[in-house]
Structures are given as C-alpha cells and as structure tokens.
Write a structure and sequence with these properties.
two-stranded antiparallel sheet; about 140 residues; mainly alpha; 4 strands; single chain; elongated
Length: about 140
C-alpha cells in the first residue's frame, strides 16, 4: 500500500512540475507572474515584459543557472509536500499502533515521522536558500 501511495504521489508531483514549469512559457500566460499554482515559474529572476522573457544582455551561463535554480526550487517544494503527506501518514500509523505487543508498529511510525520531519526541514531550508539566491541574481 505504501508503494502504491508513493507511486501516486510521484506521478502527481511530475504532473504539477510539468504544468508549473512548461505552461507559463506560452502566449496564454502573458502576465509574467512569478508563480503558477504556488510554484515558481521557470523564468523567475529574468526580465519579463508583456508575457515575453527578455534575455538581452544576459550570458547563457547566468540564464541557465537561474532556470536550473527555479526548476530545483519547484522540485524541493514538491519534496516538502511529500514530506507533509508522510507526516500525516506516520500519524495514521501511530493511531493504528495502539494496544499491547505492537512495539514494532510504533517503532516504524516513529521512524517514518522522524524521517519525514527531517526531510521537510531540509526541503524548506533548501527552497528558502534557492529563493534567496534567485532574488539576488536579478
């Protein structure tokens, strides 16, 4: 069941990532917003006017770095969402581990909770650092 849940979460994350990274590049998205469904766009940190990204005066390495950081930021935010779901799941495991002789279930729930909290802290911290770097590169 856990494997199936993880596969579903990964598929959902891929769909959300592809929508938030690829969709804003089209003409339909002419407002140059910095976020789509709460996720940063691939061009955040680049000059944008009237729905078009202006790359004049930018070096290829700098543009690639900004786009790469934005894509990594989206991935880290998805990892944070997955970690939050895992925290809820480990709480569910704790609820099921009541009674006598269920030390193994409690240990599994505690390990899942600890891992999810560590993952959430790392993902949020890394996303904050990347957002800070991208905002300074403008």
């Amino acid at each position: 069941m856990l494997r199936r849940l993880c596969k579903s979460i990964i598929v959902l994350a891929l769909v959300v990532t592809s929508v938030s990274v690829a969709l804003p590049a089209g003409e339909a998205h002419a407002s140059c917003d910095d976020a789509v469904m709460g996720f940063p766009t691939w061009y955040r940190g680049l000059d944008c006017n009237d729905g078009h990204v202006n790359l004049d005066g930018k070096k290829l390495g700098e543009v690639a770095m900004i786009i790469g950081l934005n894509v990594i930021d989206v991935g880290l935010r998805i990892v944070g969402i997955i970690a939050t779901v895992m925290i809820v799941y480990s709480g569910y495991l704790f609820m099921l581990s009541t009674g006598e002789g269920v030390a193994e279930k409690t240990k599994k729930a505690r390990t899942a909770l600890t891992s999810a909290i560590i993952g959430l802290v790392l993902a949020v911290s890394a996303a904050f650092v990347i957002s800070f770097i991208v905002s300074r590169m403008k």
